[in-house]
Amino acid sequence: MKWLVLLALVALSECLVKVPLRRGKSLRQNLKEHGLLxxxxxxxxxxxxTKYFPSLAQVSNQPLENYMDIEYFGTIGIGTPPQTxxxxxxxxxxxxxVPSVYCSSSACSNHNKFNPQxxxxxxxxxxxxxxxxxxxxxxxxxxxxxxxxxxxEDTNQIFGLSQTEPxxxxxxxxxxxxxxxxxxxxxxxxxxxxxxxxWNQGLVPQDLFSVYLSSxxxxxxxxxxxxxxxxxYSGNLNWxxxxxxxxWQITVDSISMNGxxxxxxxxxxxxxxxxxxxxxxxxxPIANIQNYIGATENSNGEYMINCNNxxxxxxxxFTINGIQFPxxxxxxxxxxxxxCTSGFQSMNLPTSSGELWILGDVFIRQYFVxxxxxxxxVGMAPVA
Length: 384
Fold this sequence. Notes:
By secondary structure, the protein is of the alpha+beta class. It has three domains: 23-55, no CATH class; 60-224, Beta Barrel (Cathepsin D, subunit A, domain 1); 232-382, Acid Proteases (Cathepsin D, subunit A, domain 1). The chain has helices spanning 2-14, 27-33, 37-43, 106-109, 169-172, 194-200, 283-292, 329-332, 361-364; strands spanning 60-63, 65-67, 71-78, 83-90, 96-99, 123-132, 137-149, 152-164, 177-180, 208-212, 222-225, 238-241, 244-245, 248-252, 254-257, 260-263, 268-272, 279-281, 296-297, 303-305, 316-320, 323-327, 333-336, 339-342, 344-346, 350-351, 354-359, 367-372, 377-382. The strands form five sheets. Strands 13, 14, 17, 18, 25, 26 and 27 form a seven-stranded mixed sheet that branches. The radius of gyration is 23 Å and the shape is globular.
């Protein structure tokens, strides 16, 4: 039965280009005469990963908006016709969810809400879902619908519809929901993540995606599904094995400054997380780093730095898989009209492999990152 289905799908894709065939002429000749040859060849270029769906796979760019160097989000559509939502593309979680018309929390009152009754392709389930983040949480239930992401039509995508979004964080957030890009084994309620669904349906040519995050509130940030664009980086990509397939977790050899190891002596575990704005680590090492860079805590819990010192402050070096990834002071110090603050923050995340560091946007803005699911590795190179 499986092969009959596959053959039927291939036959269906062949019917996408309809031209009257003339006796004695090849398909190529007929397509050329009708001005359809180039489009046909583009649709049917061969890729081993998608040989049964040759017309569907494409590299897709999902533009992101940089919101004050704090959050990066993009616009997707859910349902038929599509209902529009802004979501964070988050490599630190694995679920897609948006507010729903069934949500009674104040956070839903000022955000777009999904209405299943207005989608002809929505399918309900009886499965509940609950997700907690470092800041904010949601509860709700799961449903299936078509998701428009980066110009791709992702059919039969499972996603969460929120019923509660407690607290104030999500109320003040400029985005509606979250689209998780981590491994499926950390997805709440066993939901299949969006990227897994794209790959399983043969909608992307490679089992990877890559991310560029702009600096200084500028435009141009992007998630590239199924491809790598070398124009975003300089030099070569340095590949780092994933040490645990849940988050995008890697091993950091050490963190040093002026040739001296100041944290992560003897290696530590870190996750590469587009959904965290700062660079976080366990309390004691972060306190040491704040001291090294001359950051002092104010009454609001912010670590302030004298703006006049930035040009003379040293790089902080993250050595990963034997390669040095330097962060200049211009990267780890945030400058605003109210002063300069440290981009480091303490956050204790205990796991079986030790306390986790988070290489958030402070780090990722300096490095183009490839998240390679096919080979379970992360590629990084300095941004161009």
